[in-house]
Amino acid sequence: MHPTSSTCRIASLLALSAALVGCSGSTTDNPPAPGPAPAPPPAGVVSLHFLNNASANVYDQGSNTNPLSVQVSKDGRIADDVTITFSASPGTVSPVSTLPRGGVASTTLSVPAAAPTGAMSITASASATNTVFVPFPAYVRPRPEPLQVLVPAYFSASTDTATWTALTNSAQSYPDVHINVVVKPDNATNGIIPTGAYTPDTGLVSAIDALKAANAHVKVLGYVATAGGSSGAISLADVQTTISQYATGYGAKLDGFYLDGMATDLGHMTSFYQPLVTHIAATTGMGTTPPLVVGNPASYPVKDYAAIAGVLVTFNGSAADYQNADPQNANAAWIYGGKNTAQATQVHTAATCSAMQAAVARANSPRMNTGWIFVTDQTVGAPWTTLPDTVYWKSFLGTVDAINKGNPLPAC
Prior knowledge:
By secondary structure, this protein is an alpha/beta fold. The chain has two domains: 46-141, Immunoglobulins (Immunoglobulin-like, Sandwich); 148-405, Glycosidases (TIM Barrel), CATH 3.20.20.80. The chain has helices spanning 3-24, 161-173, 202-214, 236-250, 266-281, 319-322, 353-364, 390-405; strands at 46-50, 58-60, 66-74, 77-78, 84-89, 92-94, 97-98, 104-110, 118-127, 131-135, 138-141, 148-153, 179-183, 219-225, 256-260, 292-296, 311-318, 343-348, 372-375. The strands form three sheets. Strands 12-13-14-15-16-17-18-19 form an eight-stranded parallel beta barrel, surrounded by four helices. A hairpin with a 3-residue loop joins strand 9 (118-127) and strand 10. The longest helix has 22 residues, at 3-24. The radius of gyration is 37 Å and the shape is elongated.
């Protein structure tokens, strides 16, 4: 190649390169950096689980220190980087939203004093790569009233004076405890008084007078058999006659009636118990107006019975069975619409003081919502025909008194 020709070619390439540099500014400049990318959502799938005891799901109107907690995890491991949001209706929670600590998020539930009773909605929710919404089924009940005692005093005031004396003395020893006593006259032990002239049981009249003098809070109920509302052995007319005979024979010494063997179905409620309660309400001259009505179906009836009886005995059985009794499992959550004093329980075979106190504690729990209670060490067969052992009986009344006053329980 001719040297001159090679030199010209090189010069031309250098000139072209310079021109390109002049247009672009520099052959080594980087392109502009992109803006910051949005933060990704928390990795993993979040799950929530309420740590509250499912059996402790009944809250009092006006309570404001009810803790709620949920376990928080992502992909099966505890997580503290997911915001948990709580809600309650009726009621409020504080804080509404919070981060977990150690995988647990907590808040405090407050229930207004005027909150409607019955079912309430409590939830916890969170969002990560998924959204989870977890409910905690719960209920609101009226603020509880002090516990009362319901004594089935099915012992003779004439031949078992020692037991009546023990009952009267114990009532005097605990003047702040309201004691409701169911009585069976010697001449009406089957719970039915026929038509015709009726002579009151004079021994019972004297015993009632002494008992009411010993404790101003004592109420006395006449025992009435109803046979479940059957029109067979015991008719509605039989029971209405018994009510009238009680009122005529004992007057103001009685405050109402204990309807034993009450049915649980709606049919007998409308055909038998509604007319019977109407008859009771029209009865005059008794110690309480209108007379008290305590029904004993011994289990949870349809909720309509709560509208006609002031108190329902919704459990009547052994202490062991009582620890497993549960209105929610029995589809009877309707009891939370009424006061605790609208429910009663009668527990037998609580052999020890500790077993007795466990039964009282269960009755007093919000879940059971029970305000009238009787517990005895006597066993099945005839557990209501006498009082418990003297020491046991005083411990029982002392336990009720202590719970009502917020004091330590008597030692067992």
